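Summary for the steering committee. One of the milestones for this cycle was to obtain a three-dimensional model of the protein with nicotinamide-adenine-dinucleotide bound, which we needed before selecting residues for the alanine scan. The sequence and ligand used are listed below.
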Amino acid sequence: MYKYTCLNPIADVGLKVFSKEYEKVEQLEDAQAVLVRSAAMHDLELPEGILAIARAGAGVNNIPLEECAKKGVVVFNTPGANANGVKELVLAGMLYASRDIVGGMEWLLDNQDDEGIAKKAEKKKKNFAGHEILGKKLGVIGLGAIGVLVANAAAHLGMEVYGYDPYISVNAAWNLDHTVKHIGNVEDIYKTCDFITIHVPLLDSTKGMISKEAISMMKENAVVLNFARDLLVDEKAIVEALEEEKIGCYVSDFPNPITVGAKGCIVTPHLGASTAESEDNCAVMAAKELRDYIENGNIVHSVNYPDCSMGLCETVGRISIMHKNNKGMIAKYTTILGDADVNVSDLTNKGKGEYAYSLIDVDSKVSDDVLEKLSEIDGVFRVRRVK
Ligand SMILES: NC(=O)c1ccc[n+]([C@@H]2O[C@H](COP(=O)([O-])OP(=O)(O)OC[C@H]3O[C@@H](n4cnc5c(N)ncnc54)[C@H](O)[C@@H]3O)[C@@H](O)[C@H]2O)c1
C-alpha cells in the first residue's frame, strides 16, 4: 500500500486518480508522496520516507528544491494544466481593452436608481463605443502552453496572429495554428501589432523585456497584455506612455501600486488560473505524476531532477538511482550489478545541472545487499527498488 498526504485541499477529481493501492494519510511522517499547492514547506523537516512532492500548480517557491534534491526527493509541478484558464482571461482582456465594458457598467451602477435608465443608456452608449478585434494584429511573445492556446484562439476569432519564440518546442510548434505567422525579430511585433501579449517565464533574460525602448516602438493605440509576470514589463514606462497617450491600454493580471488605478490600465487580481477547471486539471496532473513516479520510477515535469522515462517495466525488476551528476557513476552501478550476477536489460541516465537520475531494468531480482552497496557509492542520494 502506498501512502500520500495533502498539505492543502486538493480537488477530489485529482485524488480519484489514486487507485485502491493508495491510502491518504494525515501525517507527513507516514507518507511517501505529498500533494501541495501553496503551503510553505521551507521550514518543514522532511521525513526520510518522502519520495516525491507534487505541486498542483506552476510556481514552486514554497518548496525547498535543493534540499529535496539532496535528500533524493523529486519535486513535480503541473505546467500547462492551467493554460486554458489563462488563455480565456487573455481573450477577455483583449475585449475589455477594445470596448469600454467597465466604463459602461460603472455608469449603470452609478445610475441604478434612475427609473429612466433604459432611455438614458441609449443616449449615453456612444461614450462607451469601441472597436472589434476581428482582423486586428495580435503579437504573441512566447509560444509555450499558454501562448499557443492564445495564438490559436485569436486566429479562430479572425485576428491576424504573429508569434515570436526563439526556443519554441517541437510539440508547441506542432500545435500552433498554421495561420500564425512566424516572427524572427520581436521588434516587428512591437512596431506592427495592435495587441501584444507576453507569455514567457520570468528569467534574468526576460526581466524587463517590454522595456521603455520596446514601448516607444509601439503603435499609438497598441494594447499590451501581461498575464505572465509584472516584472517582465517596465510598468513605469507603460504608465508614462499611457499618460502621454503614446499607447492605448495595458491589461495586467498582477496588481501593484504602479498600475492599479493608473490611466489606461485594466488590472485583475491574479485571476488567470483561478478557475475550478484549472484546479481540477492541476490536481489530476499532479496525482498522475506521483503515480507514474512511485509505480514506474518515471519522472515527467520535475523541477529539481531531469525528466526521465522508460514507460512500464516489462522485465523482472527496475531500480532507480538519484545521484550527483558526476562522471563514472553508471560504470560503478553496472559493475556492482554485474558482480552480483544481475543482467541489465535497459538503462537510462539523465542529468540536469548538479543532479542526475538513472533507471535500470534488470532480468533478476536485486537483493537488499546490492541496493545497499549502490547507495553507499559517493554521490548517490537515493536508491529505490521500483519493481
Ligand atoms: N496569470 C496567471 O495566473 C498565470 C498562470 C500560469 C502561468 N502564468 C505565467 O505565464 C508564463 C507562461 O506560462 P506557460 O505555461 O505558457 O509556460 P511555458 O514554459 O509553457 O512557455 C513559455 C514559453 O516562453 C518561451 N520563451 C522563453 N524565453 C523567451 C524569450 N526571451 N522570447 C520569447 N519566448 C521565450 C519558451 O520557449 C516557452 O515556449 C509562466 O511563466 C507564468 O509566469 C501566469
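Key point for the committee: The mean pLDDT is 96.
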